[in-house]
Structure formats: structure tokens, C-alpha cells
Design a protein that fits this description.
Elements lengths: L1 E6 L6 H14 L4 E5 L5 H6 L8 E4 L2 E5 L2 H15 L1 H7 L15 H15 L1 H4 L3 E5 L3 H21 L11 H8 L6 H22 L3 E7 L3 H16 L4 E9 L3 H5 L4 H15 L4 E5 L8 H6 L16 E4 H4 L1 E7 L8 E6 L2 E6 L2 E6 L7 E9 L2 E8 L9
Helix pairs in contact: 3-5, 5-7, 5-9, 7-9
């Protein structure tokens, strides 16, 4: 099953583009599921058919539904209270009634990740060939896409499974240490969450998963796309095409003098985008698109474009310069916004407003960082073998 994640700046038309993409794919013969992540039914407004949390058939081969963050949060809250029942009773705590609970910050993001996992790994996936997800605006989407990897890293540091004592030894160890050890249910919960996050990570890392960017051509859209491209590249996520929305017809610019300025500005941005992206124009209809006829008129491509590669290769230059070079593609990065910190077998990489902790390839773990350079949108980090760790030749 292929997965296409749609995002762009707020107000750029990403929901319209997601709906138009799904409709095009369905009309090309692809069994498509369209997943909405907004609390309100923005998808239904665009499609002209109400979309709820249950699957709704929009057209032949096109089904749409929305996530239910409130329901998911209450379900998780009930399960958590049941697993921690003994601890809550010991403390004399009064349990929360799920019906009175409102989702906490972050609950919506976790609901989106769960829906993404379920839509690609459950029986629902068997009924579809393509999943199109209308993600939140870019800044929230980038945080959301980073969440599985970061949460798994935190869990491994805070509750490493290898340090979980055997059940029979836990009371004795607690008395010897003088402090209570983490309860077994806490480890079980962490292991279950780690497994769920790993499934989402696998979906994002799959070569059949890509991100489609959406923006209006202009200075604001150009800045947003540059930032989004950098954030996606740092996460190793693939992009397929860039949809330029609400593109004004150039023929009208001559007849209407006031349009000349906006059209020239759009033309300039489109020319710049074509140097780096596969750009598809979605014309301005003169109205907000509503219904399948309007969506078809936008002529947004389906999911036929193969995403580019995002490999981070290591090249061997030991014979020439005595170093190994790690190539990290970071399009749109600026030299003064980059920072590298080596910590054990990990590299903490900061690029603009984004940061990621990545494990070093095995060959580089026996090396020391020897410098880095940013060239043509690619960060090249040099590693020199550490004599104390590098295998000796005879």
C-alpha cells in the first residue's frame, strides 16, 4: 500500500489538494482511502459529502473518513487507569470518568499516528491501494512526523528494557536499593507504546511513503516550502511533487492591470521552484472548490510519481585523504544555522529550527569527527579512523 502525506502552510489549500489527489487516483483506477485529521469536517466541505469517523464512499474506489482524537483519548485514559489500579488505590486517588475528560495537548497527534498505523497495517489496508492523509499545517506536521522516533528514543533512555529486573527479584532489589523500582506495568506499557511507535516509524520509512507539499507561489509560500523541505530532509522523508495552488491565469493579467503584479510574483516563484521541485500548477478557479467537479478541474496529479531517494551514503576516501565522508542531504540549509554534536555513537544534528539525534553508521562509530562542509545543499561530514578503535592491518 502506498502512502501519500499532504501538508503545506495554513490556508494554502492542502485539504483541497488532498481531496483532489485522492479523487484523481480513484478515477485512474486506484482504490483510495482519504484520511482527514482536522477536528472539523473540512474534508466534507471540500468533497461536498459529509465525512465522519466511519468510512464514507465518495465515488467509486474513493473512501474517506476522519480521526476521532476525543474517543481515542478516553479509551487510552480508561486503559491506563485499569493498568495502574493498584497504585491509584494505594494513593487513595479518585479515578477520572472518561466522559468528563478532555483531550490533553498531544492527544490529537497520537491519534493521527495511530490512525496512520491502523490504515496501513489493518484490514482497512487490504481494501485499498493508496492512503492519502490530509496532515495539519506544515509546522505541526513536521513535529508530528518527528514524534515516533523521538518518543522511542526517550523511552529507551528512561526505561531501557535490559534493566528490567526479573519479577521475583524486584521486591528484594527494591529493599536493597532503598527506593521503589518502576512497576512492571510501567515497563509493559512502555514496551507496548514502543511497538506501536515502531510500526508508525516503519510506515514513514517505507519507500512507498512520500510527502506532497502544497503552497501558493509567492514570498510567503516560498519561505514555507524552503523550511518544510529542510525539515523533511533532516528526517529522511521523501517528497514527490510540489503543488502550486491558486495560480492566476496569465492571460487575464494583460486585461486587468491590477493582476499584473501578483501574476509576475507568482511567475518568479514558480520559475525558482522548477529548479528544485517537480511542480504542478493548480489553477485559481475564481471560487473555493466545492464538490468533485471542481476538484477534478484542478487537475492535481494522482500518486503516479515515484518519490526521490533520501539515502545518506558513506563514501570511502581512506586511500586518498584518510577519511570517511557521510553525505547528508539538507536542501535549503544555511551554514550559520548548522550545528553538530557527537555523543557516543550518536550525532546530534541541528539545521535551522530542526534538531535530530541520529545513530552513526557502524563504520563511523570507530572514528572521530574531522570536520564538515555544506556544499550544494548537502552536508558532508568527515570522519577520521580512531587508532584506538580501528582494526589494525597486518
Amino acid at each position: 500500500m502506498r502512502t501519500l502525506l499532504i501538508t503545506g502552510p495554513g490556508g494554502s489549500g492542502r485539504t483541497t489538494t488532498a481531496a483532489a489527489t485522492a479523487l484523481t487516483a480513484a478515477r485512474e483506477g486506484t482504490r483510495t482511502l482519504l484520511l482527514g485529521t482536522d477536528r472539523t469536517d473540512t474534508l466534507g466541505a471540500v468533497l461536498g459529502t459529509p465525512v465522519g469517523t466511519a468510512p464514507t464512499e465518495i465515488t467509486p474506489r474513493l473512501t474517506a473518513r476522519r480521526i476521532a482524537p476525543d474517543t481515542d483519548f478516553r479509551t487510552d485514559l480508561t486503559a491506563l487507569q485499569n493498568r495502574a489500579a493498584s497504585a491509584l488505590d494505594l494513593l487513595g486517588a479518585t479515578r477520572l470518568d472518561p466522559e468528563e475528560a478532555s483531550p490533553l495537548p498531544g492527544a490529537e497527534e497520537l491519534a493521527i499516528l495511530r490512525s496512520l498505523r491502523d490504515a496501513t497495517l489493518s484490514e482497512e489496508a487490504e481494501a485499498h491501494d493508496l492512503l492519502v492523509v490530509d496532515l495539519p499545517p506544515t509546522h505541526r506536521a513536521l513535529t508530528l512526523l518527528a514524534l515516533p522516533e523521538e518518543l522511542r528514543r526517550y523511552l529507551r533512555r528512561l526505561l531501557p528494557q535490559e534493566r528490567q529486573a526479573a519479577r521475583a527479584l524486584r521486591p528484594m532489589l527494591g529493599r536493597l536499593a532503598g527506593v521503589p523500582l518502576p512497576a512492571e506495568w510501567l515497563y509493559e506499557t512502555a514496551a507496548r507504546l514502543d511497538l506501536q511507535l515502531a510500526a508508525v516509524e516503519a510506515v514513514l520509512a517505507d519507500r512507498d511513503t512520500a510527502v506532497r507539499l502544497v503552497a501558493e507561489p509567492g514570498p510567503t509560500g516560498a519561505d514555507a516550502i524552503r523550511t518544510a523541505t529542510l525539515g523533511l530532509a533532516l528526517r529522511g522523508l521523501r517528497t514527490d511533487v510540489l503543488i502550486a495552488t491558486r495560480v492566476l491565469p496569465e492571460t487575464d493579467a494583460d486585461a486587468n492591470g491590477w493582476l499584473a503584479g501578483p501574476v509576475a510574483q507568482q511567475r518568479k516563484t514558480l520559475d525558482e521552484w522548477r529548479e528544485s521541485y517537480d511542480v504542478h500548477r493548480a489553477a485559481h478557479l475564481g471560487r473555493d472548490p466545492r464538490g468533485t467537479d471542481d476538484l477534478a478541474e484542478l487537475a492535481v496529479p494522482g500518486a503516479g510519481t515515484e518519490p526521490g531517494t533520501t539515502d545518506w551514503p558513506v563514501t570511502d576516501r581512506l586511500a586518498e585523504d584518510g577519511v570517511l565522508v557521510w553525505h547528508v542531504p539538507l536542501p535549503g540549509a544555511h551554514r550559520d544555522e548548522l550545528d553538530l554534536i557527537r555523543r557516543g555513537d550518536e550525532l546530534i544534528l541541528t539545521a535551522g529550527p530542526f534538531r535530530r539525534t541520529v545513530p552513526l553508521p557502524s563504520a563511523l562509530r570507530r572514528c572521530t569527527v574531522d570536520g564538515a562542509a555544506l556544499r550544494e545543499g548537502e552536508l558532508r561530514i568527515r570522519f577520521r579512523p580512531d587508532p584506538a578503535l580501528w582494526p589494525r592491518t597486518r
